[in-house]
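User: Sequence recovery, please. Input:
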């Protein structure tokens, strides 16, 4: 016999054995689903953080671009005056 479950299983009717197998498989699937839900929550949280960080970086980038553009405009004006 392969494991202790087989000893118990041999004493049960075939439909009972099949029911036990299905119950075990359903329990495994529920555990997998719970783990996937936890992973999904973590990923959504990380995604929100990443989107916020990206938005902040885009904002900083736009401000820096505006400052560089202003400096270039000033340099061009100074060159035109020279």
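Assistant: Recovered sequence (82 residues):
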């Amino acid at each position: 016999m392969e494991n202790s479950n087989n000893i118990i299983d041999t004493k049960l009717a075939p439909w009972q054995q099949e029911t036990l197998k299905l119950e075990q498989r359903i329990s495994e699937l529920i555990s997998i689903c719970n783990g996937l839900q936890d992973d999904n929550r973590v990923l959504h949280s990380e995604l929100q953080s990443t989107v916020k960080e990206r938005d902040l970086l885009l904002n900083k980038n736009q401000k820096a671009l505006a400052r560089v553009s202003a400096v270039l405009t000033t340099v061009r004006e100074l060159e035109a005056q020279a």
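The chain has two helices and no strands.
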